[in-house]
Amino acid sequence: MLERLTTIVPHLSRNVSLKSTVNVSEVQKFSGMASEWWDVNGPLKAIHSLNKLRTPFFEQGIRSRQKSTVANARQAFPLAGFKVLDVGCGAGILTESLGRLGAEVTGIDPSEENIEVAYRHAKRINLRNVAYEANTIEHFQTCNSTLFDAVIASEVVEHVDNPELFIEKCSESLKPGGSLFITTQNRTAASWALVICGAEYIMNVVPRGTHDWNKFITLDEMTSILDKNNCQLRQLRGYTYNPFLNHWDWIKSTDINYALHATKTV
Amino acid sequence: MKGFSFLSKYSNTIHNWRLNYSTASRSSHYDIIISGGGMVGFAMACRLGRSDCLANKRILLLESSNKKQLKLDSYNLRVSALNPGSKSLLESLGAWQHIEKTRFGSVKKMQVWDACSDAAVTFGKADLSEDIAWIVENDLVQDSLMKELDKIEQVEVQYKTKVTNYRLPKNADELVQVTLEDGSCLTTDLIIGADGFNSGLRQTIKTQYISYDYNQMAVVATLRISEGDENVTAWQRFLPTGPIALLPLNNEFSSLVWSTDKITAKSLLDLPPDVFTDRINQALWNNDDRNPMVQNVSERIFQMLKVCRVNSLEGSASDIRQLPPSVVEIKGRQAAFPLGLGHAVDYISNKAVLIGDAAHRVHPLAGQGVNLGFGDVIALNDAICEAVNNGADHGSSLYLKQYQSNRQMRNLPVMASVHGLHLLYGTTWTPLVMLRSIGLNVFDSLSSVKSFFTQRASV
């Protein structure tokens, strides 16, 4: 990920002038990708349906720790007044959900293409309270002085090269008392059988090679990283996917996937 | 957003959560459009308009005809038997208060019997202490909903507005386009088709529509009856040509719904009032269709069941078998409407969803039509609110799918049983008549089974 950083930073400076120089073939390319990212029945349908499970988890988690600064936030915008950072946001599937709930969300992702798709999509549906940036968490954190009420890394840590650094930077982006949310896969025999064999090879739920089981982080490893970063575990839940119904459910066991909510010690 | 200033490309400086992003400055855009202002369409509009999670959404209801003026001088010929689920929906919408103040008939007991035998089944408490259904004129239901809808700011109603074309998007982030007769074009994130059994939206969705023409019509009329005291029983007699039902409107009047073949129906329409009255009484009382053999067997079984039930704890209305009232005269004229069965294989498409008769049409013999429609209203509202609460687009197909599977799981068995009853009672073939008569008597004597079915039919 650090390697990618160098390739991204020059792009960022170039992007400043891009606004008026959009060419047609670029637009077409991104529209094509957009339809794939945003097709709820497409290759990423499991991620879309995961929103049903994870969005309420994040929303309730954020509100359980802090009060909104916006007086009488209406039921339609329960996250109004909260600043949220969505790390590894992809094309913004989760970012938009949080934005619709009223949060002031920033989505970052190292892939410029993803961010382009995300930005265009949010613009197309006229969602104003989301912002995107093609960047890595480490670079974002150094350049950016804003601290967030919540930082979310959903289905991301299993893809990064240096999870310790990643979580450290996530935690540094948090306000004291702010909430860190991580959803990821556990490194157990069960998750190997299910996620790698089941999801990628038998059911074809996600493209083959999407996951590298060796990168999955066990709960023990995760809790020790959280401890080092002064993050206190508040909630831990297991969840699982039913590919036949394209439906996610909370389960007792955290052996396959787990979702956690930790808060940064004041 | 000071900290984001360097993100010139991707950040959007306009941040105001109060501003509803999807409605800003697009006057011909609505978050939700409901096509069709019948009972179900109006209930949908009220239900969505009353949902807190949709408080910032702009909703439009389109109705092709004029605004209906409620006439109370005589009873309207089209009535519905509302079940407890429908009543509580109307209560929650505030519409029931208007109905209560105006008029409705309570059904405390239902008696259904077979013209080919004496087999009968009754529903309801023996002491008539509980309402099991409510007979309300369709126009009154609609008017009450309209009154409540007027109070809801974010819902707009356009009468005399015909939709000429729907264009559904291919992608989830495009909008539905609705073209009106005057050439104007509206856009929406979600189009709800409540446009009846000839639904134009259903044709646009191009779903497979399984339909069956009963070749029957329902003849309707308002009848003055000779009921001694309280008129609180709904009567239905299965004739080989179709069921005839009397639904109580008040102590004096009942509403007739007589399903019969088209030729008979047309001849009934032409009859002068007194002859028509005689024909109704005949249909309720005569024994021409009776099968003596079945009658005999059925009676024995009935006696046997009675003996077995000595220890039965529950007092059920079946203990007292009443005779139907006779009809004194017909008030106003009789009318008729065609009957059919239909079911859309898909209730949903991209940003489009069907509710009520647009999705499913049933025979009125079990009084389920509008109740299924109101059930759709509740389920669709739940699905949309869940989407909004989860931060999803309110027209998200993930949630519409949830609505579809919930409702098909509920609607299909009801439709199948209603159709099955129609087929079962459409015959005079002795073995079948025997079977259904015994079945009905046994069913009637099993109070727990019966209450299970009553409950299933009431939500």
TrEMBL record, chain A:
Gene3D superfamilies named among the record's database cross-references: Vaccinia Virus protein VP39 (3.40.50.150)
Major localisation: mitochondrion
One GO CC term on file: extrinsic component of mitochondrial inner membrane
GO biological process, one term: ubiquinone biosynthetic process
GO molecular function: 3-demethylubiquinol 3-O-methyltransferase activity; 3-demethylubiquinone 3-O-methyltransferase activity; metal ion binding; polyprenyldihydroxybenzoate methyltransferase activity
Entry keywords, A to Z: Magnesium, Membrane, Metal-binding, Methyltransferase, Mitochondrion, Mitochondrion inner membrane, S-adenosyl-L-methionine, Transferase, Ubiquinone biosynthesis
InterPro entries named among the record's database cross-references: SAM-dependent_MTases_sf, UbiG_MeTrfase
Name assigned to this protein: Ubiquinone biosynthesis O-methyltransferase, mitochondrial
Organism for this UniProt entry: Daphnia pulex
Automatic annotation (TrEMBL), chain B:
Principal localisation: mitochondrion
Gene Ontology CC annotations of this record: extrinsic component of mitochondrial inner membrane; mitochondrion
Gene3D superfamilies: FAD/NAD(P)-binding domain
Assembly mode: Component of a multi-subunit COQ enzyme complex.
Family to which the UniProt record says this protein belongs: Belongs to the UbiH/COQ6 family.
Compartment(s) of residence: Mitochondrion inner membrane
Catalytic activity: a 2-methoxy-6-(all-trans-polyprenyl)phenol + 2 reduced [2Fe-2S]-[ferredoxin] + O2 + 2 H(+) = a 2-methoxy-6-(all-trans-polyprenyl)benzene-1,4-diol + 2 oxidized [2Fe-2S]-[ferredoxin] + H2O; a 4-hydroxy-3-(all-trans-polyprenyl)benzoate + 2 reduced [2Fe-2S]-[ferredoxin] + O2 + 2 H(+) = a 3,4-dihydroxy-5-(all-trans-polyprenyl)benzoate + 2 oxidized [2Fe-2S]-[ferredoxin] + H2O
The name this protein goes by in its record: Ubiquinone biosynthesis monooxygenase COQ6, mitochondrial
Record's function text: FAD-dependent monooxygenase required for two non-consecutive steps during ubiquinone biosynthesis. Required for the C5-ring hydroxylation during ubiquinone biosynthesis by catalyzing the hydroxylation of 4-hydroxy-3-(all-trans-polyprenyl)benzoic acid to 3,4-dihydroxy-5-(all-trans-polyprenyl)benzoic acid. Also acts downstream of coq4, for the C1-hydroxylation during ubiquinone biosynthesis by catalyzing the hydroxylation of 2-methoxy-6-(all-trans-polyprenyl)phenol to 2-methoxy-6-(all-trans-polyprenyl)benzene-1,4-diol.
Keywords: FAD, Flavoprotein, Membrane, Mitochondrion, Mitochondrion inner membrane, Monooxygenase, Oxidoreductase, Transit peptide, Ubiquinone biosynthesis
One BP annotation, GO: ubiquinone biosynthetic process
Pathway assigned in UniProt: Cofactor biosynthesis; ubiquinone biosynthesis
Cofactor names: FAD
GO molecular-function term, one example from the UniProt record: oxidoreductase activity
